Amino acid sequence: MEASTVVPLVGMLVALGAYAFFIYVSKHASSVEVLEGMKAVVLPCWVPWFPEGTKVVWSHHGSNPSTVHQHQKQDEPYLQNQHFSGRTSMSDDALETGDFSLTLKEPHRSDSGLYLCTIRINENKIKMKWYQVQLQVTVPQHDSDVEVYEGVKSVVLPCQISSLPKYIKVVWSRFGFNPSTVHQHQDYAEPRFQNQLYSGRTLMSADALQTGDLSLTLKDPHLSDSGLYTCTVYSNEHIKRQTIVRLQVTVSQHASSVVVYEGIKSVMLPCQLPILPEGTKVMWSCSDLHPSTVHQHQDGDEPYLQNVFYSGRTSMSADALKTGNLSLTLKDPHYSDSGVYTCTIYSNEHIKRQISVHLQVTVSQHASNVVVYEGIKSFVLPCQLPWLPEGSLVVWSCPDLNPSTVHQHQDKDEPYLQNQLYNGRTSMSADALKTGDLGLTLKDPYHSDSGVYTCTVYSKGNMTGKKTVQLQVTESSTSSTRTDVLLAVVLAVLFLVLGLAVAVVLGLAVYFWYRIITVTWVEVEEEEMFVKLPCKTQAPLPECLSVEWSRCAPEPMKVHEDSGTYICSVYLNRDIWMQKVVQLRVKVVDKVVEIGEWAKSVTLPFKTRAQLPEDATVEWSHLGGTHVTIHVYENGQDQLDKQSTMYRGRTKTKENPLQTGDLSLMMTNLTHNDHTSYVCTVCKDADIIWRRIVHLKVNRQ
Q: Does residue 479 lie in a domain region?
């Protein structure tokens, strides 16, 4: 290392045995940039001299735990952050050569950030020297897009170069594959270098090097062939030109389609192939699942490899590989089973054929139907199962949501697993698993709650029962409310007739009629400039009236702070002469942001005119599912240590968001994992005072 690159950090002399040395730190922070999809990247760290017993620790700023790799005599992977498990290594002779560089395999965009190479001695008490490496992993920009339907005979990936030098080599490769070579051509095709998944399926023109048309023909494109392909031209082992092509293989419009009602015993997904080679393996999968395997068959069914959601529900014919009938029988199809299923046939681990089937499971006409008015306090979605094994798990879900879980119960309610739209609004009986009454109580129903709800019971990972309920929440009307109140008064009058004179009863009826408190419902979308709360009467108004508008104390955990009950009171000589009640609901409108599939950045919008408390906490996170914190603003600054490592260095809010009301979040270096829904929550003293949902929609056209 040159002397100019280091400066004394501590002018302290450290004695170790017969040796003495100073502690130094590098001034220079190396910068390394690599494309996502490359096999590996090396983060440099070199130390010319160090004592025995040295330990090398690579760490990632912002990760928790921060250790990426540790080496003392040998690699110690059990101490590293699991995000880097199996992806890091150092040279075996690192402590002999002083080359402490770290090799990071398959770099992802989320790996971007600051890495520290720390050399520790004397049982970690002394940090002898460290280096900083700034890693930037970027997604390559592609030159062209190719989209085809699965089932076509072939597709051409274009690569045209007008003038080529002599003695060149052309390599088609795919990002993220190992080995990455799809096709290699130098005077002729060289199949021995290619990934076996593409064996016998690639072709280039024989005179490609003369014409400059280096396009690649790919036969029988499968769904799994979708991705980024690179055409690289070498001359004397130096790269002369690169072209990147994005291939998207979509399900054929002519794929089989199966439609069934939920509640039938089973459904068959067809897949027929007349001739199959020996050693064939059949895999049914659904890309929406993780893991995606629905059923696997080779010599016999292999249920231990399937997604547990399908455990005990799938089967294939015992002689499937002899007859060519590879159809899959799916028992007890649910509404949530709808999707695209792919039957993949392998021979010697190579894909020979793929067939896709659309399955649509619709709600049975005999499913329970519940209709309620918006504005009621609560209601129950029924679900009765007379016998339940011990340790049963009950999950209420709505497949139209993401995540779909509305409520989960095992021994007790587990609200932290539910979709945040239902936070604080659902409950089940404490003894539900004993009585078999699994009904779900839903508070404050909204019109947007309408849909299909499913009550599913699991025992030891297997589904043991299921019921479906169709919910319809309709808007309430003022007239119906007034009619109900009037009916109550009439019944009260009839009751009083039994003991009072008719004249007195009529007088009381008239009196109460004019004193009835009616409820008017008003709904307005959030961010409207204003809303009018009505209070009108046709009765002549006496003089000296006073009017007072008041609001019932709002409950905590409201989605919108202005929603609630407002009362218009008219006083005459300090007595209430008339009262009207207005129920205001401020409807939170989910925002939808459209971006291109390869967009690099996006802003998730959230602006409000409300006065937000300065000591509030603003948190952006994924909507539902496993809680992933994207960004936190608290105590007047961003709290980077509270966000998920995959978002470190990629998010930013506006300056002074609580003062300006602009809580929008800017997110850069987008990945496909970012194409989801987000929720911004504003909290104070553990109460949610504001919430905004933003759906990120990808325009793939």
A: no
